[in-house]
Write a structure and sequence with these properties.
Elements: H1 19-30, H2 43-55, H3 77-88, H4 95-122, H5 140-157, H6 161-164, H7 170-187, H8 193-208, H9 212-228, H10 237-257, H11 275-285, H12 289-299, H13 301-304, H14 311-329, H15 333-338, H16 341-349, H17 357-387, H18 391-400, H19 410-432, H20 443-456, H21 461-468, H22 471-481, E1 487-491, H23 495-505, E2 508-511, E3 520-524, E4 540-548, E5 551-561
Parallel strand pairs: 1-2, 1-3
Antiparallel strand pairs: 3-5, 4-5
Helix pairs in contact: 1-20, 2-3, 2-23, 3-4, 4-5, 4-7, 4-16, 5-16, 5-20, 7-8, 8-9, 8-10, 9-10, 9-14, 12-16, 14-16, 17-18, 17-20, 19-20, 22-23
Amino acid sequence: MNLPTPAIVSQDAVSPLPRWALILLCIAYVVPGFVGRDPWKNADVTAFGYMLELAQGRTPWLSPLLGGMPPETEGLLPYWLGAWAIQAAPAWISSEMAVRIPFAALLVLTLAATWYAAYYLARSPGAQPVAFAFGGEAAPRDYARAIADGALLALIACLGLAQLSHEVTSYLVQLSCTALVFFAVAALPYHSLAPGVALGAGMAGLTLAGAPALAALLGVGSMAVIVYAPGSGTDRRLRWALALAAATLAAALLAWGLDLWRWRIVGVESGGKEWQSLARLLLWFGWPAWPLALWTLWRWRRQIFSRRGHRHLWLPLWFSAVSIGATATTQPADRALLLGLPAMAALAAFALPTLRRSVGALIDWFTLLFFTVSALAIWVIWIAMQTGVPAKPAANVAKLAPGFVPQFSLVALLAALAATAGWCALVWWRAARNRAPIWKSLVLPAGGAALGWLLLMTLWLPLLDYARSYQPQVRSVVAALGPSPGCVQTVGLSRAQVAALQYHGGLSLQRAGLQDDCQWLVADLAAWPASEPTFRASQWELKATIARPTDKNDHLLVFHRAEPAR
């Protein structure tokens, strides 16, 4: 017996979001953060350091080293992508900009895959709205497009997506490959070629990016969903399940052949998880997708537990559950939760046909107040940095970022003004009259998230670069070393510090004890004096202690050799 669907949607409610507006929103979200900024600590600059070493031929492609240290993650695909981009880029494109081009494309791929996955899930028979007695219900394709628009808006609105999706790390590769697998399984009942290519690329990409266990879990769970809830074409469910089994097995064998299987579960003996911080992460990272996803599970609960499987619910639910499980059991938690955002956004989109008008109004008012106040604060602090008025915000910036000199950019100002004007127009459109489309409740959250991110990456970019990059500290280190320092030994430096010193400072670094003719040494304060048996701290004379301006716990020590090398 088929249970009635909770979605009651008329044709007027599924008018599509204008394509130009959707594309403009995606551009406003994707481009800022990839253009014009320095590599940030820690994962961003570390990954960039490995890419630069590979591109310049200073380390093997299958076992890259940075300062004598291998990568913390086993997946090498992200480093290869960045290195290939550096080698292929023309001379007028900087290395840091070159590596961001393929990763910007990966973010675009994530957004597109999420839209199409939600579109094909919404075309499932169990996802269709109630048929009206006298007609007028939403057409299946129009309904699917409206749900897909809502899913894409929900993904852009997620607060945790902004920074991590603009870093050149393995986690963005894993995110895009997870979205590809999600799309492939969602589209299998309707096409063969595109889902097949996406499935193979997604599984291989997840494995080569260091997440073979995730690929295996997603593949096995997707097989179960295909068998239990095939959607349409039930006579082909065995063929689809076999294709998923083959892709999962191939990914597992690839991981085994490259020795990529690792046990990363955080055990109780190591302290386990801090559950309060984990709860806070879950609360803000996926906002506002997770409350809508929970509402979907409640309103569609009869369909979830019915004998007839509903793939539009079970597939995103499985992908979200795997991500949340990884968040609770592995490190880093926010990177694991990132991979579940496309599925969570798709699940949230199915709440839109069931929302009451009062709930939609509450979302609109909360979003309007939150993002308007946030944008106003960004503008006020920027004005204070440029003019000194108001005095208190200017004093706070000077206290938190000592030595920072504000910079003015006309291009950044024009982009910020255009984004603010667009936000005002969007608010006016939403408040002008009662809009019918079901995606209307997510327009302000997505627009507000894009506005906030764009303002931060334009008005605040010099300040954020000063606070989050190593360049100010490296500049002071280079000044302490003087001109032509030659080789420089290092003690206790992290991968990020090594990458920053080599890129920003152009230094030739050697680990302490490997070369005795270096006259200079740079050490991390927390690692000094060194514990290596062959290293003698008495040979070195301290010349400078250099802190990162915005981090009181990050100090580099600069030493000069006190006696001639023997």
